[in-house]
Amino acid sequence: MKHVGRSHPRLGDTPFLTGKAGFVGDIALVDQLHMRVVRSPIAFGRLRGIDAAAAFAVPGLVAVWTAEDVAALPPVGFRLAAAPTLEPYCQPVLAVDVVRYVGEPVAVVFATTATAAEDAAELVALDIDLLAPVLTLTGSSRGFEGETRPAEAATVRKAFGDLAGAMARADRVVEVSVGLDRDGAVPGETRGVVARWDGGRDVIEIWGDARLAPANRDALATMLGRPLAGVEINAVAVGGDFGMRGELYPEDVLVAYAARTLERPVRWIEDRREHLIAADQARAMAATAKAAVAADGRLLALDVEFAIDQGAYLRPTGTMVADLTAAMLPGPYRLEAFRAVGRVRMTNRTPAGAYRGAGRVEATFVRERLMDAVAAATGSPPLEVRRRSFLTPEEMPADRHMTTLGVPMTIDSGRYQSLIDQLTKRFSLELVHRRAIDRRAHGELAGVGTAVFVETSAAGKYEHVTLSVDPSGNLELVTTASELGQGLSTLLAQIVADIVGADPERIRVTHGASTRLGDGVGTFLARSSVMAGTAAQYAAELMRDKILAGAEALLEVPRERLTIHSGRIREADRHFGTALELADLARKMLPGGPLAGADGRGLVTEGWVEGEGMTFPYGVAVAVAEIDAMTGLVRVPRVFIGYDVGNAINPALVESQIATGAVQGLSSALFTSLDVSPAGEPLRVGLTDYLIPSATESPSVDVLITEDAPSLTNPLGMKGAGTAGVTGIGAAVAAAIDEALQVPGFTTHLPVRPVAIRNLLRKRSGKSERG
Amino acid sequence: MRAAAFDYHAPSSLDEAVGLLAEHGDDARVLAGGQSLVPAMNSRLARPGHVIDINRIAHAERPHVSAGRLRIPPLMRHVDFDTLAVDGPLGPLMRDVTRHISHLPIRLRGTFCGSVANADPASEWCLATTVLGAEMIARSARRGVRNVLAKAFYESIMTTALADDEMLVEVQIPLLSPFVRYGFHKIARRSGDYGLALCLVVYERDEDEMVKVRVGLGGVEAVPRRLGAVEELLERRQPSRRLFREAADLAAEIADPLVTADGDEAYQRDLTRAVVTRALDRSLEG
Q1: Distance from CA of B267 to the nearest CA of A (A)
Q2: Is B242 on the interface with A (CB under 8 A)?
Q3: Per the CB 3.0–4.6 Å rule, which of A304, A485, A607, A730 could disulfide with A538?
Q4: Helix, strand, or coil here: B138?
């Protein structure tokens, strides 16, 4: 039976369902210390002094560290999108002289119990001279007095074609100013890390999120002045990552350094308040976008200026979000000319990092709001405006004449109009539109909005896996890519199963395994199914060859006449009997033995893949919105998403990625934002203020997966799907709200505030609105 | 997220509990369901030196009716109202209201008297007790028992008339006439959230007219309040959509809203109009 393409049930879920999975909070080591971070309560100020004397009265206190105690540690560096000019914006592991956001680590306390650590941390007194914080993108660099760094850390510029010429030839130029508020991933499980120095081996062992274990191991080893072999990161189960977790944080460095310095295991588990003020945030941006439109309604050019609210420091992803935002702005449209200027602006807010859909969510919101404005300006239906300007299948692969993250951007494949047509037919979207029109005719505020988006995936270097068969016939695939709940293990097992001829249940996928593999890159930008999947494919092909070669020698039957099925090798033209069990073969092919194969290693193979450019999956998001006129509250009862994934190895996994992403996107569109007071104090510090939608508020999500445009960058034609659900929702919901209100261009910012809707309705109908 | 150190007391009688309160005064907090107190302590917003856990008081009373009043003891959980048997409309009313309180796990532990004593402006029970003319029975070791009417009980946000040494030992709610109709509505961002606005309307039908009209607003102002002017407008009138809109407009006009992170004054008035309209509309259903 073929496994690829089937919705095989997820492998490895049993431990989660039976409470056996081990999260970082489950780890308790003998003699461990608990770390508590003393965080700045001030958004911007000069740090005059720290008085920890009172803390030492707390029983169980072992140490209090400030910047002086960690002077040997360099600031947290870059993993992606680095440049020497960016170094002044790196975050010191503990604040030096200046505090730049509420939540910034200023000191750390180590104690024998978590409660003692918290008690002691409260008693560390900070003497801070207040400076005027910069909290929004609207202010210029004025007001940043007392700061030595320019407020604009970097400027990303991308362009092609003759912009001035296109603008001059345009029949009209349509402009929008739009923006997104700050939000974050806010997973179910907060951050945490445990470390121990094994003095016998001189290794710092770390337990925590291993999404980027190889990169973080290398960075930590460098920061701590140790050989790479002196740091080990062990994967544990994680309750949600979404790009927020896994990147190296000051806390990770402090825990590792303390474990070595204090020679006791150190544990740090973040609480929810800390998480909401100190973990990476994302999304905040403002943009002004212009479209040059020809007389026939086609797009000629896009000209976009945007600014990203980076917060107080750059994170290991450097300027990646700005870079991707700029690169993804053209989306699926044919353009003669394009220009994007992206400003990475520093503020006195929590540092911003990557969050599921980084750069694509931002770019899609700007571009698709602009496309709706073009539709309104030209009096054309929104989908018609888009159709006129789609790149056609004949234009693929389409060179975008620019690079992103250092890689030339060539859209590998895409059939955009076809996906819209299929989605429309599959879910009778004509009827959905007609129903909204009918409801409006009856006085209700209901609307439908559509956004088209291009995604990117599979960025980054290379990936490496090993595959082996043990003497009992079980297979193990080892990868540094991470299982974060997305189902990677299942998907890799399916790929290997088909090629080798084994049952997926007999294939164990050991993920996040930087302690087993020296190299590998990790999981980000929806890359793992493509990169690790292709590496697994190569390893499995080599394994099949080895198995057949061994069987040929043992059975004295030419390999062309042998097949492998469910771990049994038999002659292809015989319907009965097993010639050889895989387990028997594995025992006979042990390394060093007579049948150990040409390389003498037995049934062990490796798969290695190097980045062959990015893939560009694409999708359509359609949202239905209904507005309660009396309260301005918006409900999104239904969402439809069409997505082309090139090759759906496991359609159910793709669907669940899309459905969960859609709910996350809806959250940022309607419910969640990480607001601060005028003094920069976070207002959303618990899950009673930060309103994650529950099942009741979540829409029903209908998903159509197509495989019409396989990627040209990998043999299986795969494209990533990890961020597909989240990317288009905001723009689609915004369009649906505009239609419900019958005010094109009303929704310029997300999340949509009920107050803003009420202000409009109140103005529109005089004093008393009837509902 | 760990509470600051405190002394834990588990009295086995009410006498003992109020004795501890007398001893520790404002440094003590009574722990009933703990659904507000424990999170507040864990985030160290509340730091009582003494916690008096009343859950071990063995002869915790059952709710009962006497002298025309429903008498609600200190440990009655929100969820207990789901199965409360009381003559007349009070039982169904309390059942409707309790189902709007948060989520089941919280209703299983949180208590009625705890919510009343906590005095959150958006508490369903604070609104209900205000509208239904409840009497709060406060007890202290030194001064014994006293009764406080709901409208005198809620003083401001999270502040009641209870003295530091007093414990809320019972709430009494007068039973409702069989001719009573009621409507409750709550506007919230998510199901189970504290309401942005709440309204409870109670009146009797006399022929085609509404009499003894009571309209209470919660969540919008610092304390739940009956809107006398709105009640007067509706008294002895026949219910109609048009009248209800007029009443809701008046409510929106006379409300004295708190301004929150999520809404300015105009928006709070909008919410008031919406919630009063819908509670009134609901009173005609069923």
Answers
A1: 6
A2: no
A3: A607
A4: strand
Q: Which pLDDT band, with edges at 50, 70 and 90, does A144 fall under?
A: low
pLDDT confidence of A768, banded at 50, 70, 90?
very low
Cβ neighbours of residue A56 closer than 8 Å, sequence gap 6 or more: A64, A120
A649 DSSP assignment: S
Residue B196 distance to chain A (closest CA, Å): 10
pLDDT of residue A139: 63
Task: For residue B242, give the chain A residue with the closest CA.
Answer: A770
Exposed, middle or buried: residue A541 (CB in 10 Å: 0-12, 13-18, 19+)?
middle
Contacts of B266 in chain A (CB under 8 A): 758-759, 762
- Cβ atoms of residues A43 and A133 within 8 Å: yes
List, for residues A650-709, the tens digit of each pLDDT value. Answer: 999 999 999 999 999 999 999 999 999 999 999 999 998 999 999 999 999 999 999 999
Q: What is the pLDDT of residues B72-82, one digit of tens each?
A: 999 999 999 99
Q: What is the pLDDT of residue A595?
A: 83
For residue B270, give the nearest of A118, A630, A691 by CB distance: A630
Fold of B7-56: 3.30.43
Fold of A410-458+614-771: Aldehyde Oxidoreductase; domain 4 (3.30.365)
Residues 6+ apart with CB under 8 A from B146: B137, B138, B139
Min distance B208 CA to chain A CA atoms (Å): 25
Q: Where are the domains of chain A?
A: 24-131+185-278, 133-184+281-379, 410-458+614-771, 460-610
According to the model, what pLDDT value does residue A771 have? 40
What ipTM is given for this predicted complex? 0.95
Q: Do B191 and A632 touch (CB under 8 A)?
A: no
Q: How confident is the model over A147-173, as a mean pLDDT?
A: 94
Report the Cα–Cα distance between both ends of chain B, in Å, rounded: 46
Cis-peptide into B73, omega within 30 deg = no
Q: CATH class for domain B64-174?
A: alpha beta
Candidate from B4, B5, B189 with C-beta closest to A691:
B189
From residue A446, alpha-carbon distances to A371, A623, A665, A742, A752 in Å are 21, 11, 20, 9, 15
| Strand B225-226, strand A98-99: pairing | unpaired
Looking at the complex, does the CB of residue B194 fall below 8 Å from at least one CB of chain A?
A: yes
Q: CATH: 3.40.50.620, 3.30.365.10, 3.30.1460.10, 3.40.980.10. Which one for A133-184+281-379?
A: 3.30.365.10
Is the confidence at residue B147, as pLDDT, over 70?
yes
Strand order in the sheet with A152-160: A152-160, A337-346, A299-311, A285-293, A172-180, A749-750
CA gap A81, A358 in Å, rounded: 14
SS3 labels along A734-758: HHHHHHHHCCCCCCCEECCCHHHHH
Query: Which residues does chain B have within 8 Å of residue A755's beta carbon, measured at their own beta carbons?
Result: 262-264, 267
Quote the CA–CA distance of A216 and A79 in Å, as a whole number: 9
- pLDDT more than 70, % of chain A: 97
Q: Is the pLDDT of residue A147 over 90?
A: no
Nearest to A631 among B43, B187, B245 (CB): B187
pLDDT at B99 over 80: yes
Q: Contact, A362 vs A285, CB < 8 A?
A: yes
pLDDT at B137 over 90: yes
- For residues A518 and A524, give the distance between their C-alpha atoms in angstroms, rounded to a whole number: 19
> What type of residue sits at position A471?
P
CB-CB contact of A225 with A204 (8 Å)? no
Q: Is residue B241 within 8 Å of residue B214, measured between CB atoms?
A: no
User: Which of B1, B190, B262 is the closest to A694 by Cβ?
Assistant: B190
Residue contact A691–B271, C-beta within 8 A: no
**What are the start-end ranges of the E strands in A682-752?**
700-706, 749-750
